[in-house]
Amino acid sequence: MSAQIIDGKAISQIIKDELKEKTARLKEQGIEVTLAVILVGEDPASQVYVRNKKKACEYIGYRSLSYELPKETSQEELLKLIDELNNREDVNGILVQMPLPSQIDEKTVIDAISPKKDVDGFHPMNVGALCIGEKGFVSCTPAGVIQLLKRGCDGKIDIAGKECVIVGRSNIVGKPMSMLMLRENATVTVAHSKTKNLEEVCKRADILIAAVGKAGMITKDHVKEGAVVIDVGINRNEDGKLCGDVCFDEVKEIASAITPVPGGVGPMTIAMLMNNCYEAATMFR
Ligand code: GUN
To answer: Which CATH class is domain 139-266?
Structure first.
């Protein structure tokens, strides 16, 4: 039997429409949501990401402030701008698009953003809050995966008590994903490049989350019959076509539910960024 497809595009649209409605109500109370987006340099992929984030702001009814800085911008100049935005009461969220040019240290920049405006959820204070179950901003991609699991398949996917295997241990996806699945009461295993018998480990999963960044590395031999498979990977194959970490065509014959690439996790990341912006404008009042 072929798996149910979890439609991230449709679910992200529902979330954006919910936010649009809530934002209209906030506006009636005189509250505006404002996201400041900083792009340093002219990386084409980053330009596309930033454009899509600004477009989502416009759709929902947020104000977006755009700072496009030259690639030779010094770290000091960038930190000065972040400091100004941290101190502006009319700015709720600050997003510095990564990667940054080599003269700028990403960690220093992440640490400089006020944790209360860190809508990416990258600041150590927010990462720590997630680990101990306190309120804070959660990294957008793993937060989006949780929404896909909760809203996909008509809400019929149970997480509590399930075996969840996450492949990948990045700070942005794998690690926060493990904390979120733990918070949902799954039994969590994090596999990575040094994991022995990866196929066997993955085959234990009721919910398998692939976040490695290697095209087609998860095959039917990694998947238990009836598992839910979430593909976080965004890669390009030899033909330049967008593809995930999962061999979709063969895995969909075994899984009970699966996310496609594109149209799965990808659109959820921006929807969750928009959700974090709303939280930033309302949580600290
Ligand atoms: N570059 C690629 N993904 C992201 C993201 O989620 N946030 C930021 N700030 N930069 C990125």
So the answer is: alpha beta
